[in-house]
């Protein structure tokens, strides 16, 4: 039971990574962006 759960978790993680890698770089690195007051952002 535990091994099956671990395999399913690993598969979900790999799927998430593949989906993120399929995105363009701007969307992939969006979590690194810092929002600036008054609009705009930077890495």
What does this structure look like?
The chain is mainly α and about 45 residues long. Helix content is about 60%, strand content about 10%. The protein contains two helices and two strands, in the order H-H-E-E. It has a two-stranded antiparallel ribbon with strand order 1-2. A hairpin with a 5-residue loop joins strand 1 (about 35) and strand 2 (about 40). The termini are far apart. About 0% of the residues are buried.
Low-confidence stretches: none
- What would you report as the Rg, rounded to the nearest angstrom? 16 Å
Structural class: mainly alpha
Spatial ordering of strands, largest sheet: 1-2
Total DSSP helices: 2
How many angstroms separate the termini?
43 Å
The gross shape turns out to be elongated
Give a short account of the largest sheet. 2 strands, antiparallel
> What percentage of the residues does DSSP assign to strands (E)?
5-15%
């Amino acid at each position: 039971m535990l091994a099956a759960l671990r395999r399913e978790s690993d598969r979900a993680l790999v799927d998430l990574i593949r989906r993120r890698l399929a995105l363009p770089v701007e969307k992939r690195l969006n979590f690194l962006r810092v929002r600036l007051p008054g609009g705009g952002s930077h890495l």
